[in-house]
């Protein structure tokens, strides 16, 4: 490993010869991210069953709302985890912060999986479930910022978009895995068994991969001090005027992304409770949309490397806005498998592309010395405010209005706000462009 020192920071940095770092970084960061998001998100797929186990009530709606409220509790501690672990990643390195996050998530998912039901231990059951969700939230709050920074710093300049797109893609992989597990369990278990312990099986499957994930994280090379361009690494003085703007716009876009993601993740519960379709079809809805989302996330990153960040944010976002209401109207009126699977699949394909471009744009726009903390904190606050409330709000509005189109209106509102913010985001791609969008010579962009 090449080691060099700069006059500004007498610290060892990885030399340009360490190109193999990129594959190891993507593999290690992505697999760890998948496991963490699987453990955190599986709860939403089994919200009804977990509600019956920990929050029994005579009214099914009350039980579901209590369960979704506990799901939302996992978002309360995400900003705290983002600040603590994000700052730690900017100070000590990306790897130790990611490893600490993974260890806490491991403890939380095991606690949730083995906690007895309310019938067995009474009030202690929901209290333990809430504590486990709070710990999960803290761990995941410190996951996204350091991981995104790590992926960007490990990638060559010309492939940053694709490398960073593995962050949202890995989240889609986790959601797909959760939906696939739910689909398999719903097909192989009776309703009574699924309600009694099927959700515990899903959590324990994730827990079984924890030792491998922890090992993978612990042996990753560090990227914090790796130079991002063939220029001396400097420590900027103070905050640049554009940092606050990028962070404010990023918050709006991440809020929209959060709402879209969690409303889409709610489709299993929506299909069961509102559309009254079969359980296998309900799980298949989320499975298909998330599978499409994986390809769309990677495609967004690849396109962002080729034609710039802003174009890939703006035009697919416009298309998704135009499609949202017609797709949900089709689903609500037909309630067919084709509408559910095909409509949501196409909407997910178009709607996921802009956010991959945004991820790399925001990571590039933030200075390295605050990148982990800033990205994590903005992401966590957006998630805490809008992710933790998205599913309860949609459930409550559907209950209040009786309209199956509530998810569409909520997604339209969020998507329009994101589009406005995307239009104001600067272009951060380290490329020169000509009017016909053809790529020209690569030139280094000034380091933030």
From TrEMBL:
Organism for this UniProt entry: Bradyrhizobium yuanmingense
Protein name (record): MFS family permease
Bilayer topology: Multi-pass membrane protein
Keyword tags: Cell membrane, Membrane, Symport, Transmembrane, Transmembrane helix, Transport
Source taxon at top rank: Bacteria
Matching InterPro entries: H+-coupled_symporters, MFS, MFS_dom, MFS_trans_sf, Sugar_transporter_CS
The family this protein is said to belong to: Belongs to the major facilitator superfamily. Metabolite:H+ Symporter (MHS) family (TC 2.A.1.6) family.
Pfam families per the UniProt record, alphabetical: MFS_1
DNA-binding in keyword set: no
Chain segments annotated as transmembrane: 61-85, 197-216, 249-269, 281-302, 338-362, 374-398, 404-425
Major localisation: membrane
Cellular localisation: Cell membrane
Domain named Major facilitator superfamily (MFS) profile: residues: 25-429
UniProt keyword annotation of Repressor present: no
